[in-house]
Amino acid sequence: MKGLELLEKYPLAGKVVKDWFLQSMLESFKDDSVPDEFKEFMLEQGIEDDKVGTLIDVNPRMLLDVFDENDVIIQITHKPLSGFSHDSISYFKSRKESELFAITEAFEYLEERLTPIEFLKLEE
Questions:
Q1: Going by DSSP bridges, is the β-strand pair 77-79/83-85 parallel, antiparallel, or unpaired?
Q2: DSSP string, 2-57
Q3: Residue 49: inside a domain, yes or no?
Q4: pLDDT of residue 118
Q5: Which residues in the chain come in under a pLDDT of 70?
Q6: How open is the CA angle 63-77-12, to the nearest 5 degrees?
Q7: In terms of residue numbers, what domain contains 46?
Q8: How many domains would you assign to the chain?
Q9: Is the pTM of this model over 0.90?
Q10: Could you give the 3-state DSSP secondary structure of residue 123?
Q11: Taking the chain, what is the end-to-end CA distance rounded to the nearest angstrom?
């Protein structure tokens, strides 16, 4: 699944990811040479979904930190004759393919954790 599709399908997890990207970007602006007005502008504008989606597609590995911070731990292993895997079931020729697959599952898991639980009303 493409990065933009993940953001659209899992909006709560997508918000966590986009907020993390924005904070990471702002932290990189701690240098005093970056005007405060520009930092405020970036906060107001946010990051567009298509740009975050492209970042996910190009480098899914960068999301490992955001998932770690949300207790969704992804471990990629390698077996010489099988390839790369995060679950010992699905194997891929490249680490990136395995990471993209793992990131998709991590989005789904985080979305489930962030979705409010509705309590059933008991009839009296």
A1: antiparallel
A2: -HHHHHHH-HHHHHHHHHHHHHHHHHTT-STTS-HHHHHHHHHH---HHHHHHHHH
A3: yes
A4: 61
A5: 118-124
A6: 25
A7: 3-114
A8: 1
A9: no
A10: coil
A11: 46
